Structures are given as C-alpha cells and as structure tokens.
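User: Fold this one for me? It's Bleomycin resistance protein.
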Amino acid sequence: MRDKKITEEFYIHLLGFRPMGSGNYPEYLMVEKDQVELHFFLFPELNPLENYGQVYIRTSDIKGLYREFLDRKVPIHPNGPLQAKPWGQMEFSVLDPDHNLLTFGQAV
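Assistant: Here's what I get for Bleomycin resistance protein.
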C-alpha cells in the first residue's frame, strides 16, 4: 500500500472488511472479512501502473458477494465482471487503489 488511510477506506468502508489490531503499526494494516485476512505493508514508492500484485479469494456465495459489492458501489474491473470461467469457477475481479488485483471465485 502507498497510503494506509486510502487502503483502509477502500477495504474497510467500501469492501466491508473489518480492521484487525494493526492500529499501533503505522506502516502495517490487517483486515478481515468472512475468515479471509489480508495484510498490507507501507510501500510509498509503489507505482500502481507497474504493480502486479494479485490475490485469489474463494467464497461460498459468489453471487451474494457480487451483489453486495454492486450495492456498495465497488468498481468492478472492466475485464472482470461476474462470469463462469472455462476452468470451472464463477469469478469477478476488483482493483484496489494500488492496483492489487483481487479476484473472487467459487467452484461451479
């Protein structure tokens, strides 16, 4: 993450994650949602356009999560709307403010 406050705003207020005890560490952030933990470290020199960070998060309710994100006005990646993939997963993707790619999936 380049900026902890921006990352907190995105994950906590937009995606609905909750903070996890990282308040005392200004260069570290931990968030949790539905038994998924994500950890971030401060990297102010990160160029988002050159960032290739990505995470695949499995869920048991992909359609519900997608609806929740649409209701929260989460910007879905233009190439990543909810769709069935040839490899047997239903998936959608989101880019965070630092261009970390988050792909959410469920086996179909």
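One thing worth pointing out: The mean pLDDT is 95.
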